[in-house]
């Protein structure tokens, strides 16, 4: 498939609009007063001789005597908002970035650090030193740009390509490495696959392997924050492949009907593992679904970190002040394979990937912007990459040397106190290990056999 054909398929006719920054609205953007969450709704009646439908299932639909089916291709595709072009030049002067130099360099450093960590961890999996990894190459702009627009107290539910968001928030390299090696310092106590990060300190919920399960969880958390009334919001990340799951539809519908303060961020990178977007859906991407559920929606150039930052900041404002959900569809491209278990060149040409890397890498685009501003140069780039690579390798080697969690940890954290059944299972395992010591080498685990 040619690059031109894929670009057309990925954006599905979407128009890049640098000077039209607005959400597709389902109602006026006005600040709403607090309401009683349990108050009954007003009765709906159909007035006599009305010229529009006023039924519970459809409000304000005009009556017509012309029978006409609405064809999907008759509706213009939603535009894609951008601020900065591929050369790092600002094209929407109404939203010229006002962030100080320190903030800009923090974003850029998080993007570069994520990229370098991705490369090292991908190679380490190939060496058999960790079991699994998922690279976020090409999607760093979505993760970092959105994270930079949030408040520290906002809650994040992510999928598995948001390491950039965690990196920006302050998730340390040792925390990344401890999780991927599943050692005794891992917050999940070695129970999850690699890349299933979590951080109570940073308000980041644990990543879950099953696709899209974080979406209804995020909505429930947002409803809880709504009841607290403190203005905090939930941000929920997922890919366009996850939007094919039932949890996506249930989550968005509940968020809309319960007016939950949640910002949904969909990374539409063109592929759900090996399934291209054109084979996943026939509608206008994922953004059109948000409108269908009555949610404020916008489509953004995901490789433009400034555009992502600006729309996320505005979306957060809507969710916090007006207590309702927002959907952002970030159009980007997955340069990496889906995971270390995937060879994407079996279903897409290598030339297509290389073309995207050359033409529109989000890190390169942002670097050009910083260079244009006089904030960056090749010497600083070399120093940063050299320093980051050393930091990543130091954290990697330290985590690799740590022991695994105590074996008894596999029985904990399900109930407040160990149940008789769990106690029986643990005692049985202890007996088997004692009976067959040569079959169970527990020296790599903290406290060894005593850890049972």
UniProtKB/TrEMBL annotation:
The Dehydrogenase E1 component domain sits at 109-406
Could you list this entry's UniProt keywords, alphabetically sorted. Answer: Metal-binding, Mitochondrion, Oxidoreductase, Potassium, Thiamine pyrophosphate, Transit peptide
Q: Which domain of life is it from?
A: Eukaryota
Against CDD domains, the record matches this protein to:
TPP_E1_PDC_ADC_BCADC
Q: What is its EC number?
A: 1.2.4.4
DNA repair listed as a keyword? no
User: Where's it found, cell-wise?
Assistant: Mitochondrion matrix
Q: Quote the catalytic activity from the record.
A: N(6)-[(R)-lipoyl]-L-lysyl-[protein] + 3-methyl-2-oxobutanoate + H(+) = N(6)-[(R)-S(8)-2-methylpropanoyldihydrolipoyl]-L-lysyl-[protein] + CO2
Assigned protein family:
Belongs to the BCKDHA family.
Stated name of the protein: 2-oxoisovalerate dehydrogenase subunit alpha
Q: Give the originating organism.
A: Ascobolus immersus RN42
From the broadest rank down, the organism's phylogenetic lineage runs: Eukaryota, Fungi, Dikarya, Ascomycota, Pezizomycotina
């Amino acid at each position: 498939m040619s690059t031109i054909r894929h670009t057309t398929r990925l954006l599905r006719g979407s128009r890049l609009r640098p000077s039209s920054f607005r959400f597709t609205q389902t109602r006026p953007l006005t600040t709403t007063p607090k309401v009683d969450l349990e108050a009954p709704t007003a009765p709906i009646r159909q007035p006599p001789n009305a010229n529009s439908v006023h039924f519970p299932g459809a409000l304000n639909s005009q009556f017509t005597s012309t029978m006409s089916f609405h064809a999907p291709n008759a509706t213009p595709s939603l535009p894609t908002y951008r601020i900065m072009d591929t050369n790092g030049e600002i094209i929407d002067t109404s939203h010229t970035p006002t962030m100080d130099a320190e903030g800009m360099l923090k974003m850029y450093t998080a993007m570069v650090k994520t990229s370098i960590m991705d490369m090292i961890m991908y190679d380490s999996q190939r060496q058999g030193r960790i079991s699994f990894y998922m690279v976020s190459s090409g999607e760093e702009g979505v993760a970092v740009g959105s994270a930079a627009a949030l408040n520290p107290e906002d809650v994040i539910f992510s999928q598995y390509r948001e390491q950039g968001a965690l990196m920006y928030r302050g998730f340390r390299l040792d925390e990344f490495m401890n999780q991927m090696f599943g050692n005794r310092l891992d917050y999940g106590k070695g129970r999850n696959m690699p890349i299933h990060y979590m951080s109570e300190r940073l308000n980041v919920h644990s990543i879950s392997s099953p696709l899209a399960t974080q979406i209804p969880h995020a909505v429930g958390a947002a409803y809880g924050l709504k009841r607290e009334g403190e203005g905090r919001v939930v941000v929920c990340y997922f890919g366009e492949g996850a939007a094919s799951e039932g949890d996506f539809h249930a989550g968005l519908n509940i968020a809309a009907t319960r007016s939950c303060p949640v910002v949904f961020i969909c990374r539409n990178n063109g592929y759900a593992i090996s399934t291209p977007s054109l084979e996943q859906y026939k509608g206008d991407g994922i953004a059109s679904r948000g409108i269908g559920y009555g949610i404020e929606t916008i489509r953004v150039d995901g490789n433009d970190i400034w555009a992502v930052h600006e729309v996320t900041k505005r979306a957060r404002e809507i969710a916090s002040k007006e207590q309702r959900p927002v959907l952002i569809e970030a159009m980007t491209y997955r340069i990496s394979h889906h995971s270390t278990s995937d060879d994407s060149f079996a279903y897409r040409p290598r030339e297509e990937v290389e073309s995207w890397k050359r033409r529109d890498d989000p890190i390169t685009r942002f670097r050009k912007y910083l260079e244009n501003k006089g904030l960056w140069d090749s010497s600083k780039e070399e120093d940063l990459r050299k320093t980051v690579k050393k930091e990543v390798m130091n954290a990697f080697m330290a985590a690799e040397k740590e022991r695994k969690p105590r074996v008894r940890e596999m029985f904990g954290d399900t109930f407040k106190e160990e149940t008789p059944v769990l106690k029986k299972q643990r005692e049985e395992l202890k007996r088997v290990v004692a009976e067959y010591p040569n079959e169970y080498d527990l020296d790599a685990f903290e406290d060894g056999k005593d850890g049972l």
